[in-house]
Design goal:
The protein is α+β, with helices and mostly antiparallel strands. It contains 14 helices and 23 strands. The chain folds into 3 domains: about 260 residues, 2-Layer Sandwich (BirA Bifunctional Protein, domain 2), CATH 3.30.930; about 110 residues, Rossmann fold; about 70 residues, Translation Initiation Factor IF3, CATH 3.30.110. The radius of gyration is 25 Å and the shape is globular.
């Protein structure tokens, strides 16, 4: 292997200098998104949308494999429906956008633009469900939602974002809980093996539960700057919404019963997670499984006879198995190298007159920067194996960084020291008191991200709450978060 290329893309602010500016530079200069005329709303450009399509396809396949079907529900929700579940409306009230006029006329009832769809979906489920024989309802929709955010950043927090929201109904509480955990595990599987994002999974504290949920479960990823990103949630809604919306059915004993309800969702926020987990000072580093372009071919001295013909033949041999692009523009080779490196393409192939003579090409890896000469005889197999290797390497690197940025704290002083000197996840005991949770956030800026499941629980120190010092039987992950 050759030496790593240390030439930086000058247009991108270094991470260490200003991480927020680095992020903004990367998403704009790689043409993932642009800012729309309405503050807080983003235009997802083709390169960014292609990443979303690969994420969407991975999740959609797994949803369908587990018996879920896609539907679509209206964008607008009557105010009366939103108000049927008090806790829910209270949770979303500050973020709701309202439609009060239709054409030139005031509407008889204000309509909200969906911040989430529990209410409109439940109103329809109440019409459709009659008998236990129809259960379970296993439905999902891909759509956009609007939440009028005060502070926005593309992908991470925008006033409109794309997502999926699954909404299921079950006969028993046990079946609903099984569904809630099944979807959380699907979320984790795709995050880790498709997006190369290592995540911590667990339960949210009562304060952080979804509005109206009995329990909320989450997967939390850690970004390069040590801040956490809530990357997907799965909610056991119990019978809160089914009772509020009078969803009933005749059960196996011919009695009226309320079903148990779940909802779960991931969004375009995952693209922000990919950028901030894998990116570097040269720009994007994309996991091969979601990269819009997995291999880019750069013909060298393309004006010379036979070079472009051989480059296009190489492209044709690869395109049956990988997403491949050939850059035959008249930009200089140096500009092309920087451009495609910045866009995060996993593998770059360079082929020129001397390479053709030797039946080889130069292969450059985006994740390590290493370059090597490879034979054209088995190039398809070489590329396939290397894409798999890069995918695994990115996950391992992200996991290593997360572990390095995960510490433990037994008291508040140690907690503050850790979050200042090594920002990241802090594992600490928590007594379960919301007052302690609030005080930790007030004094450190860190929130309780999740309480890991029993098989990942451990006792930190002497088993006392990191804030109040009282007995605590739960370890929790804390972090500052996006």
């Amino acid at each position: 292997m050759g030496k790593k290329n240390n030439n930086k893309v000058k247009e991108i602010t270094p991470m260490a200098e200003d991480f927020a500016k680095w992020y903004t530079d990367v998403i704009s200069k790689t043409e993932l998104v642009d800012y729309s005329p309405v503050k807080g709303f983003m235009v997802i450009r083709p390169y960014g949308y292609a990443i979303w399509e690969h994420i969407q396809a991975a999740y959609d396949q797994r949803f369908k494999e587990t018996g879920h079907k896609n539907m679509y529900f209206p964008l607008l929700i009557p105010e009366s429906l939103l108000k049927k579940e008090a806790e829910h409306v209270e949770g979303f009230a500050p973020e709701v956008a309202w439609v009060t006029r239709g054409g030139n006329k005031e509407l008889a009832e204000p309509l909200c633009i969906r911040p989430t769809s529990e209410t409109i979906i439940c109103s329809m489920y109440a019409k459709w469900l009659n008998s236990y024989r129809q259960l379970p309802f296993l439905y999902n929709q891909w759509c956009s939602v609007v939440r009028w955010e005060k502070t926005t950043r593309p992908f991470l927090r925008t006033s409109e974002f794309l997502w999926q929201e699954g909404h299921t109904l079950h006969e028993t509480a046990e079946e609903a809980q099984e569904e809630t955990m099944k979807m959380l595990n699907i979320y984790r599987d795709v995050a880790e093996h498709i997006l190369a994002l290592p995540v911590i999974v667990g339960q949210k504290s009562p304060k952080e539960r979804f509005a109206g949920a009995a329990e909320t479960y989450t997967m939390e990823a850690l970004m390069h700057d040590g801040q956490a990103l809530q990357s997907g949630t799965s909610h056991n809604l119990g019978q809160h919404f089914t009772k509020a919306f009078d969803i009933t059915y005749l059960d196996r004993n011919n009695q009226q019963a309320y079903p148990y309800h779940t909802s779960w969702g991931v969004s375009t926020r995952l693209i922000g997670g990919i950028i901030m987990t894998h990116g570097d000072d040269n720009g994007l580093v994309l996991p091969p499984k979601v990269a819009p372009i997995q291999v880019v071919i750069l013909p060298i001295a393309q004006h010379k006879e036979g070079v472009l013909d051989r480059a296009y033949a190489l492209k044709k041999s690869l395109e049956e198995n990988v997403r491949v692009e050939l850059d035959d523009s008249d930009n200089s080779p140096g500009w092309k190298f920087n451009q495609w490196e910045m866009k995060g393409v996993p593998i770059r192939l360079e082929i020129g007159p001397r390479d053709i003579e030797n039946n080889q090409c130069i292969l450059a890896r985006r994740d390590t920067g290493e370059k090597v000469s490879v034979s054209l005889d088995h190039i398809n197999e070489t590329i396939k194996n290397l894409l798999d290797e890069i995918q695994v390497n990115l996950l391992n690197n992200a996991r290593k960084l997360r572990d390095e940025k995960t510490s433990t704290a037994t008291n508040l002083e140690e907690f503050k020291k850790n979050i200042k000197e090594n920002p990241g996840f802090i594992k600490a005991m928590w007594c379960g008191d919301q007052d302690c949770e609030d005080k930790i956030k007030e004094e450190t800026g860190a929130t309780l991200r999740c309480i890991p499941f029993e098989d990942e629980q451990e006792t930190i120190g002497d088993g006392t709450c990191v804030f109040c010092g009282k007995h605590a039987d739960k370890m929790a992950y804390f972090a500052r978060a996006y």
